[in-house]
Amino acid sequence: MDIQFEEHKDLTSLTTFGIPARARWYAEYSSEAELLKISRSEIFINNEILNLGGGSNLLFIDEFDGLVLHSRIEGIKRYDKDPDNVYVIAGAGVNWDEFVDWCVARQLGGVENMAGIPGCVGASAVQNVGAYGVEAKDVIYSVECFDTLTRKPCRFTNRECRFGYRDSFFKHEGKDRYIVLRVCFRMIPGNEATNLEYGPLREFKEKLGHTPTLRETAEEIRRIRNGKLPDWHEIGSAGSFFKNPVISRPHWEDICARSGMDIPAHDVGEHLKKLSAAWLIDHAGMKGHRVGGAQVWEKQPLVLANVDHATAADVAVLANEVRSAVRRRFYIDLLPEVNYIDTSIKVTVLGSGTSKGVPEVGCECEVCRSTDPRDKRRRASVLVQTHGMNLLIDASADFRRQALDAHIYNLDAVLITHVHYDHIGGIEDLRPFCATGDLPLYVRKDVDTDLRERLAYCFKEHPYPGVPKFDLRVIDNYPFHINGLKITPIEVLHGSKPIFGYRIGNFAYVTDCKHISEIEKEKLEGLDVLIVNALRDRDHFAHFTIQEALDLIAEVKPGTAYLTHLNHEADTHELFDKRLPENVHPAYDGLVIEINSK
User: What whole-number distance in Å separates Cα of residue 406 and Cα of residue 383?
Assistant: First the structure.
């Protein structure tokens, strides 16, 4: 059993976009034993891991600087517990559409509505794929995985997979740790289709004059798909690029009134409406819109197609233009279903000042009177843009103004460092980003307790309409994932109070730090950019002085460092910058830092 690791692997043929894609390392496995051997290798241990399924939901912005694993685990087995309970177990590497055909041929219902979806069985559990009124979660009974931590197999029930709309446990806490080996489906014995509520299928049933068989349903769905979607073998695409928005009924009524249009929607839960992203894109005037070689598909505007040697940049720019057009017309931000493989990071410093800000109220010092815009320091926070996501670190007390100046239209999540007001005083201003669902806030346990008390009106069983709604996710001092992106907390002491900084790729943000342990310093090794607090020259019981920050920078040796959480004693930006080492600079509000992948 000899595992072959390929270096600088061309992945283009393994994806459906037809856009050049590469990986630093690549390996395939066809059994649990082979995967176990891979997991013990130095390449696996020392690199970020990406599991590649059918390659239908990925957009490689640049080369993936890690190890791509591709499952070749095949095999489908049927188990009849009794006439009404039939289970089918399929290997993660089985082609999804072939699996659908296998089930249909044996008169096992439940997956026929998902005929024609590109990809593999393993990805169906990770993505919770769905189409025409059915999702994978409706038929998945359990998922067998390989635990890369214990290096042993494990099993998750349907409930434990925590399936959501195009979402699952494996895209969050389970990311990188668990690799899908096999999926067990609970099927419906019989030859008649049972999920025919979706409009075109109701019409199909009426046209036939009888309930369609599984085969008739699968073939009709393929016919519908082929009529709307490009054949990715000829014209590259990732299928549906955007998720269909799910919003509250009051929000739906509001945007109907504001847009002057009767926006079609259907109920998906109590007080929730699901909208058609394709309809929104079409009525925002973006059908057929083109950027370079990428185009919004004329027959199905939910698809972004590679019509003429498109680059990843073409697709990314087109996606942003579509989102902007829909947002302007309907006040809704479309979220991508496609995962961006993008190790580049864009950081915008929203605020670089202390709890008082600069200028300080009532102060007439040179810095506070300065007309240099770099000396106007709002409360500290940053926006991190990577992997197609917008992540906010701290909702400062100045967040509303910061969001307007930085043109922030959507947030995927917020990372909170600690509970002090200058870092969370803008949480109420996150309200616009909660319109399409509860906004995830990643917090320490003490922050969770504080926010639930401070913002109790947001967490009532029946909250007042329009209050911001948050999904508080408690984290400890271990790496976690947001839509597949690894985030590493860095615990530091703010005086005597433990708080978090965060590392994302080769960027780290640490503020309000007075002491950092040797173990936590190791998390700052190999950084391209570090932003760290440096209050002033004089000592402070809870914050680094400028010299203490410089000492840390000299020790961990980032490529470039920026000093933040500056008060007016740090001098004007121009003078302060002149006395710092060559690779260290004062941060300032509006500073944009581009960190490109290697």
Answer: 9
Domain of residue 26, residue span: 6-71
| Residue finishing a domain among 302, 324, 340 | 340
Same domain, 287 and 416: no
Identify which of 120, 121, 141, 127 has the alpha carbon closest to the alpha carbon of residue 184: 141
Examine the pLDDT at 483 and tell me if it is beyond 80: no
- What are the Cα distances from residue 598, in Å, to 10, 58, 481? 17, 20, 22
**What confidence score (pLDDT) does residue 340 get?**
87
CATH code for the domain of 564: 3.60.15.10
pLDDT tens-digit readout, 128-158:
999 888 999 999 999 999 999 899 999 999 9
Q: Reduce the secondary structure of 553-589 to three states and give it as a string.
A: HHHHCCCEEEEECECHHHCCHHHHHHCCCCCEEECCC
Query: Burial code of 430-466, b = ≥16 C-beta within 10 A, e = fewer?
Result: bebbbbbbebbbbbbeebbebbeeebeebeeeeeeee
What are the tokens at 62?
Answer: 């640049």
Are the beta carbons of 480 and 442 closer than 8 angstroms? yes
Strand 290-291 to 6-10 pairing: unpaired
* CA 338/CA 342 separation, integer angstroms: 12
Per-residue burial over 494-526, b if 16 or more Cβ lie within 10 Å, else e, is beeeebbbbbbbbbbbbbbbbebeeebeebbee
Report pLDDT digits (tens) over 30-49. Answer: 999 999 999 999 999 888 88
Return d(Cα 573, Cα 593) in angstroms, integer.
17
Within 10 Å of residue 551's Cβ, how many Cβ atoms? 12
3-state secondary structure (DSSP) of residue 413: strand
The Cα 568–Cα 365 span in angstroms is 8
CA distance 386 to 442: 17
258 with 298, same domain?
yes
pLDDT one-digit tens code per residue, 364-423: 999 999 999 999 999 999 999 998 889 999 999 999 999 999 999 889 999 999 999 999
| Residue 1 covered by a domain | no
Q: Which pLDDT band holds residue 1 (cuts at 50, 70, 90)?
A: low
Q: In sequence order, what are the beta bridge partners of 58?
A: 339
Are residue 455 and residue 535 in the same domain, yes or no? yes
Active-site residues: which are they?
A: 166, 240, 337
Between CA 568 and CA 535 the distance in angstroms is 9
Q: Of 445, 384, 447, 452, give the one whose Cα is nearest residue 412.
A: 384
Spatial distance between the Cα atoms of 530 and 251, rounded to a whole number of angstroms: 40
Residue 597: its pLDDT value, please?
56
Q: Which two tokens stand for residue 367?
A: 């810095």
